[in-house]
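Meet my pick.
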Amino acid sequence: MTTVLDVAPGSPEELARFEALQARLPGMYQAVALDDRAPNTVVVVPSLSLDARELAKITGVHHYEERLLFLLMLLRRPRTRVVFVTSQPLSDTVIDYYLHMLTGVPTAHARKRLILFHCYDASNSPLSSKILMRPRLMKRIRKAIGPTDRAHMVCFNSSPLERTLAVALGVPLYANDPALNSLGTKSGCREIFREAGIRFPDGFEHLRDANDIADGLATLQTRYPDMRRAVVKLNDGFSGEGNALFYFDEVDGSTHTERKGQILERLPQLRFEAPAEHWESYEQKFHDMAGVVECFVEGKHKESPSSQNRVNAVGQAQSISTHDQVLGGPSGQVFLGCTFPADPRYRLEVQDSGMKVAEVMAAKGVIGRFATDFVSIPDGQGGWEHWAIEVNLRKGGTTHPFLTLRFLTDGTYDTATGEYHAQNGRPKYYFASDTLQAEEYKGLLPEDLIDIAVYHDIHFHASTERGVVFHLVGALSEFGKLGMVCIGDNLQQAQFLYNRTKGVLDREVGRVTDET
């Protein structure tokens, strides 16, 4: 591809430059932390630099770049500039919608400090790759950044592409070093759990092919003769759609070799979480990226909490929040949304386990935000057992809702209680989803959505700090898909706002459901 790079991607020269850039992060972080009026530039590149075959499973996936639009709220800092790059142009209505939510800053003042760039490219290539392929665009971005000693780049996830882009732009990357990304794979996180000393399902990591899968499953059946099912996971699957279940119903061999042979024959019958997945494509992806097998955590009553953590630019591990995940899919492994905070019966236990993971990550040099997901079941004695399932070493589905709440309310998260309090001391809750979707919603423009929200008074109000904040608005007209963060003074209020908003949209488009 044609680029303006003067060092080869992944070369020792690029790695040395990247290391030198990263050394600037602590100083910049401390300067802004001490003075939010300090001049700085944030370059936002919301590239989903993940396996294209897995991304293809997500409806309207290229609009997921819009989930980082909450970072426009950084413009409330009077000397902060934001350079935001996307694959396709963003609607002016959407930009105005976010800028209107800024408190204490005139919209015109914020708009002057926002520079938007677009690649005009809706292909499935990662955004970072699209930028690197456009030398003239790269030059314009460099010019917009200005002094690079006061600038840094943020992204959805860090890969070698983001490292190359950061070096080409001459700015540090406030995200995990791609050299450490293996820690966030399904195999890597099992090793992290082991080192952190927290409970996780028995199983095997770093498996390469069908033979490895069958061998691992046969061994688990030997260890747990009554086990009904186990889960197979792609190392780099996400949102649960890289998972599949194996049922042992007809595996009855008397030896390990016999059981392994029976399992090999039945692997094409894996029950995949992704609707369009099949064994032939799954087997190829497993060969390409490796994966794990592990016991499926059974239980009549299960919850799926997660702990959000951060290792800041000076290497400090921090607790950020806890959530309960809303899951769906054939066996309840696909992420649909979340509620904040997690259930008070176990949120502090989950927070403590997540912090242990964060401390191990910090010791290994990780920086940035990540989430540790759990499956939790009652222990029969009034308590809970928590099984760590995976680490999402990137911004995820719980990142933008929490930061949206924080930017809108300027409150604080209390690690002693696991609650978030606005400046007036009132606790805040939310229900968030990326997956509200209906065929009848197709054709609704951003302008239509805003008009509906204002007319029915469901939008977020700064005075009450309650209401709905929309995201993925660009996916609405083409895919009938929308995301929202519903903020209330308690969880029931937040869920009511979600249900009310869904009901309003259904009635506006003439959609008839059991709920309407």
